[in-house]
Amino acid sequence: MTPLVFWFDVVSPYAWLAFDRLPQALEGCSYVVDYRPVLFAGLLKAWGQKGPAEIGPKRAWTYRQVAWQAHAQGTVLQLPRPHPFNPLALQRLALASCEAGGTPNRRVVELLFRHVWCREGADPNEPAALAALTAGVAPRRDPAGDEVKAELRAHTEAALAQQVFGVPSITCDGRLFWGQDALPMLRAALLHDPWFDGPAWDDAGRQPDGVQRLA
Length: 215
What we know:
Blueprint: E1 2-8, H1 13-25, E2 31-37, H2 40-47, H3 56-73, H4 88-96, H5 106-117, H6 127-137, H7 146-161, E3 169-172, E4 175-178, H8 183-190, H9 200-205
Parallel strand pairs: 1-2
Antiparallel strand pairs: 1-3, 3-4
Helix pairs in contact: 1-3, 1-5, 4-7, 5-6
C-alpha cells in the first residue's frame, strides 16, 4: 500500500470536503493514510500569505464555492460562526487522542471536522460543545499539555519542511497534492498514470520566476 500523509487544519472547509471525499475519490487504489494536524495560520505566516477569508471578495467567493462543492459531492457543510475561528483547541485534541508521537485515526479526525462543519451557525469553541466533543474523543493525553503543544508545532514545521503551503495537502511518493480539487490527480498518480513517469511534473515545477510584485 502506498503511504499518504494528509495534512489538515479543521478551520479549512476545503480540508473537510477533501477528507469526506477521499475514500470515494481513491476507491480501488491501494493506500494507507496518516492524518497529521497542522496550524494553517502557521503555514500562512511562514509563506507570507493571507488566508482566503482575510480578503473581502475572496471570502464571499470561498463560502459560495464550498457550499456548491458540498452540494455537488453530497457532503454536509454548514458554516460555523465565527469563521475563521481559532482552531488550536481542536488541533491539539486531535493529537491528544493518541500516544506521544502518534497521529489521530480517521474516526477522531471525522469527529473534529463534523464538530466544525455539521452544526449550522455553531461556534466550534463554545465551551459546552467543546467539552462534549472532548468526551467523545476520549483523549489519552491532556490537550493543553506542553507535550501536545510541542507536537503540533513540530507537525507544522515538518509540513513546512516538505513545502506544504496550504490545507488540505497530501504528500505521496515525494510529491505534494494541494486542495480538494487535486484528488483526481492524486488518484492518477496512485494508479501509475504514465504522465508521472515523464518530465512533465518536474518541468512544470521549474518554471522560472516572472515579474516580482513590490511589497
